[in-house]
Design brief:
heterodimer, A: 354 residues, alpha/beta, Rossmann fold, 11 helices, globular, B: 248 residues, 9 helices, 7 strands
Amino acid sequence: MAKVLMKGNEAVGAAAIKAGCKYFFGYPITPQNEVPEYMSKELPKIGGSFVQAESEVAAINMVYGAAGAGVRVMTSSSSPGIALKQEGISYIAGAELPCVIVNMMRGGPGLGSIQSSQSDYFQATRGGGNGDYRTLVYAPANVQELVDYTMKAFDMADYYRNPVLVLGDGMIGQMMEPIEFKETEKMDLPEKDWATTGTKGARKPNIVNSLRLQAPELEALNQKIEAKYMEMEEKEVIYESYKLEDAEIVFVAYGTVSRITKNAIDLLEQEGIKAGLIRPITLWPFPNKAFAEIPATAKALMSVEMSQGGQMIDDVKIANEGRLPIGFYGRSGGMVPAPQAIVEAAKELLGGVK
Amino acid sequence: MAVVFNKTQGLTEKEFHYCPGCTHGIIHRITAEVLEELGVLGDAIGVAPVGCSVLAYDYFNCDMNEAAHGRAPAVATGIKRALPDKVVFTYQGDGDLASIGAAEVVHAAHRGEKITTIFVNNAIYGMTGGQMAPTTLVGQKATTAPYGRDESLCGQPLKVSEMLATINGAAFVERVAVDTPANIRKAKKAIKKAFECQLEGKGYAIVEVLSTCPTNWGMTPVDAISWLQENMMPYYPMGNLRNPWEVE
């Protein structure tokens, strides 16, 4: 299929439709407005349904209803809106429903800014909702990956009966890039025989529910969903390793910033400093195993994020297991790191550890 | 021997957990009878959010969703949009619908979602132990209004049905009670109309049912019925508030 030039926010909608999603419930918030706008234009053409909800809280509960009815469904928002959706995401995980949630991150805390940011890593990977649940989190670095992982997200959601989060940022949402809608292999997915579609008098009622008043029953549910999370940790980790061979310093960066970090790696190479990159594509489960590839030449790690003080750096510390010193470089509030600034921070870190 | 009464197929065999004298049981039964009589039990999908009726999924003999506090109209919207040919209803209390879920019910009505709501108003939070609700009467005692509801601090009780009757998307709004056999028959008739309204695709339909909570009101079941008649009915008058399509 020929490549088309598309804006990230529209491409994510097109990818969802391509993956069989006919239902979208959203609420306006910058910088993701083109997602609901695109869906409001396209879904009626294919017999689907778009609802502009009265709030993000309502939108995610509409997702809960539609997911419980057994259809492929998506919502999108940006940081403060995702904060409002956390209640629903927890219920969706607890009721074991599949859905896809897109977050085009913007600066925070509070109302923050409308510019690109990566300060919702904790919210995405730790879960802002209550209870022992996890969401599979894809962090695309370009519009093609945004398309590919959005499509994959629907299969994963159905396979695990769990919400899947696609974590972009304002830049990926707003940027136009040439993309291709690849024909993907159909995954062998289980029947949705649990869905509430009406009994037709032919079976016992199905119940969509996260309530377990009896403690042993709730523990049993938590054990069941934890088993899924363990399977995800074993099977679903995706990452890219870049120029790790002989690297003196290994950056860890995801999404938009990983592209800037690759530029910094090229600049360092020109100065005779060998640098490499571990790029987590799944933020949860985090690619701990990538850290086994770090060569003996490495003197330090550096987490580069669009966040003040860093959030992913906590996972880098866990994966590093105390082996190497860890530095950090980040900008926040919608400020984007420049390659040269990353280069300077890396040289300073290496100077300190020599 | 002639059979004069059969338990409806719309309810399961599960025993209700409701307190003695609570009218949830009656409202469950008449709702279930309506679903059976309309022949839609196999197409019905119910949504019951947090509150005393959170376990309604154990009682209604159809597909059921448990929802977060107040969110049932949003969940029902998602179901109905995905499965427009199914019969979707919410069963909500007054703490749930009139307080935390006020936005969801107003906008479901505003969009004219083709769903039906059974709204059980007993003027108190029952499940959590008798706290003040938006519907608690002025002067009525509650565990968070130990001196009685003070109008100067808490306002007057919210008349949800009157409010929803101002919304064009609401195709049927009626307030009923289940304090006497005659009123139970009227309530069932209203619930049937509210489901017919959905089946005919007219829009959002809601039936507010005045209900008792002897446990949290601190009364015997008989006294609770009298209290409802003497105090709730004057403030929450019964009758149809909106039926532009004249659903009969």
